UniProtKB/TrEMBL annotation:
The lineage of its organism: Eukaryota, Metazoa, Chordata, Craniata, Vertebrata. This is Ceramide-1-phosphate transfer protein. GO terms for cellular component: cytosol; endosome membrane; Golgi apparatus; nuclear outer membrane; plasma membrane. The keyword Cytoplasm applies. Belongs to the GLTP family. The gene is Cptp. It comes from Campylorhamphus procurvoides. GO terms for biological process: negative regulation of interleukin-1 beta production.
C-alpha cells in the first residue's frame, strides 16, 4: 500500500491492541485505529468528506488531550471518564471540547463504520454498496444528524463504487482475503464499541450535547 493509503491490517492491529485484560480501552491504539478508518473514508473520495473532516478534527482534539498537561488521565477511556466527571457534571456538559463529548461523536461514527463494514463483508458480490451504506447510516449516525446532512449523505452514498472496488481499497489482496480480514477485524471493533457504550451508559454520558 502506498504511504498514507488505507490498509485494513493496520486498523485490525490497532483495535486488537485497544482492550486490556481489565477491559479498559486504551486511547493511543483507539486513535491510531481511527486514523486508519479516516484513510478508508478519504480513499472513497469527496462523498465522505463531511464525516472524515469531522473525525479528523475529533481525533486531533483527543491527541491534544493526550499530549496536554492532564495527559496521564487520557491513557484510557475509563481514566478519562473518571477524570472529567470528577470536575463535576455541569462543567462536563458545558465543555464542547471535553474528551467525553469528543469520544461520543467518534463512538457514534464507529457504529456506522462497523455496520457498514459488516454489511460489505456479508453482502453478495453484486449487492449495491449504496444500499448497505444507507442502511448502516440510518441505523446509527442518521439519528444524530440534522435533516439537511442526512439528505446530503444519502444522496452521496448513491455514488459509491461496487463492492469489489471497496474490497480492493482495503489493500490486503483479492476480495476474498479482504472479506476474511474483515471477519477478523470487525469483532475487535465491536468489542471496543461495546465497552465504550457500556461505560458511557453507566455514567449517563450517551446524550452529551
Amino acid at each position: 500500500a502506498a504511504p498514507g493509503a488505507f490498509c485494513l491490517r493496520e486498523v485490525l492491529d490497532a483495535f486488537k491492541r485497544c482492550v486490556t485484560e481489565r477491559r479498559e480501552v486504551l486511547l493511543e491504539p483507539y486513535l491510531s485505529g481511527w486514523w486508519g478508518l479516516i484513510r478508508f473514508l478519504q480513499s472513497l473520495g469527496a462523498v465522505f468528506a463531511f464525516i472524515s473532516k469531522d473525525a479528523v478534527a475529533k481525533v486531533q482534539l483527543m491527541e491534544g488531550h493526550r499530549r496536554g498537561q492532564h495527559g496521564e488521565h487520557y491513557e484510557s477511556l475509563q481514566a478519562m471518564v473518571r477524570f472529567e466527571l470528577s470536575r463535576g457534571p455541569a462543567e462536563l456538559r458545558g465543555r464542547p471540547d471535553s474528551g467525553c463529548r469528543t469520544v461520543l461523536r467518534l463512538h457514534r461514527a464507529l457504529l456506522w463504520l462497523q455496520l457498514f463494514l459488516e454489511g460489505l463483508r456479508t453482502a453478495h458480490r453484486d449487492s449495491r454498496t449504496a444500499t448497505i451504506c444507507t442502511e448502516s447510516y440510518n441505523a446509527s449516525l442518521a439519528a444524530h444528524h440534522p435533516w439537511v446532512v442526512r439528505k446530503a449523505a444519502t444522496l452521496a452514498f448513491c455514488a459509491l463504487p461496487s463492492r469489489d472496488a471497496f474490497l480492493e481499497v482495503m489493500n490486503v489482496g483479492p476480495p476474498e482475503q479482504a472479506v476474511a480480514m474483515l471477519g477478523e477485524a470487525i469483532p475487535y471493533i465491536q468489542s471496543v464499541y461495546g465497552i465504550t457504550q457500556e461505560l458511557f451508559a453507566q455514567h449517563r454520558l450517551l446524550d452529551l450535547p
